[in-house]
Amino acid sequence: MMPHSLRQRSTALALVLALTLSLLLSACGSSNQPAADQPDAAQQTAIVLTDQAGREVKLDAPAQRLVSCYYITTYATIALGLSDRVVGLEKKADTRPIYEMAAPDLLTKDQVGTLKEFNVEAAAALEPDLVLMPKKLMDYADALTQLGIPVLIVNPENQESLEEMLTLIGKACGAEEKAQALLDYYHQQTKRMEDWTRDAEKPSVYMASNSSYLETAPDTMYQASLIQLAGGTNAAAQLEGDYWTEVSYESLLAMAPDVMILPAGASYTVQDILNDPQLKDLPAVKNQAVYQMPQGIEEWDSPIPSGILGALWLTSVLHPDRYPFQDFTKDAQDFYKTFYGFTLDAALITQ
């Protein structure tokens, strides 16, 4: 027979064990909330966006495989550190110098179309998590979404919508910090330009198109915003429309711009303008104030991630006493080193 003291100790131990088990079961029970109250794991990682066509875009997780149908979105993947996720891109990639300099692997990727046509089957075969598509191609979006492939429509027609595009792509791919760094850079440089040019004279600037110097940018175009940021006035401000507008020699002479700017991709040269006898009385021609944006890098007159450099470059042209060209050269090199990861050859930065 068990001694009385030993039986007491055994009984006490049994009570302690029973109490401990009861508390453990109670704790477990209290953590088991009804299914409706518990956050679903998929819901926690899902990404829901409204794109620039007003469409809702849902992703289960940050996109790892991208198809970019548009050079501007492909440029954005480089600036956001995402070019290694691109599995397909727009045609004529070999005509974009920045790909060779910053992300040469892009030149080996499948090409899926242009702004005029898009190959849905080729894009779908690449099994992307997300297709980045300009608004001009959005008629193809339904075909992809019916295949279960999310499509993010973008429409970066001005600085504000460019920033929105970068924010959307950043969120879709888990690159929010890089996107915010770009936006912070834009705002810093805008403040610098405002400070430099606040009390400066604002020369009249004529921005010509790629195809003809008898086409120019009305005030609604992105190119006009570059002129304003750089401390100039748009010679074509009175024109209506939201795209390159044809003008006559008489209209151009009446505008009397102090400065003429050719985009990087112009099909004509500065010398063509200076040698045109019908423009000999134009102030910009008389003063030899005709300039072309640097060629062989990117189209700085376009709404692309590096477009802020177009405004900075123009500031150095219009206000060299406040922002010398050598300062701009250093700033441009710093930009590409910071956001694109390579050192830009200073010889390519021309005025």
Description of the structure:
It is a single chain. The protein has 351 residues and is an alpha/beta fold. The protein contains 14 helices and 13 strands. Strands 5-4-3-6-7 form a five-stranded parallel beta sheet. Helix 4 links the parallel strand 4 (86-89) and strand 5. Helix 7 runs antiparallel to helix 8 (176-197), helix 9 (222-229) crosses helix 13 and helix 13 runs antiparallel to helix 14 (325-340). The longest helix is centred in the N-terminal third of the chain and has 28 residues, at 4-31.
Summarize the structure.
The chain is an alpha/beta fold. The chain is 42% helix and 12% strand. The protein is built from 14 helices and 13 strands.
Number of helices: 14
Shape: globular
Q: Gyration radius, to the nearest Å?
A: 29 Å
User: What is the helix fraction of residues, given as a range?
Assistant: 40-55%
**Order of SSEs:** HHEEEHEHEHEHEHHEEHEEHEHHEHH
Strand content: 5-15%
Low-confidence region ranges? 1-43
Q: What structural category arises from helix and sheet content?
A: alpha/beta
Average predicted confidence as pLDDT: 89
- Describe the main β-sheet briefly: 5 strands, parallel
Q: How far is the N terminus from the C terminus?
A: 107 Å
Q: What's the arrangement of strands in the largest beta sheet?
A: 5-4-3-6-7
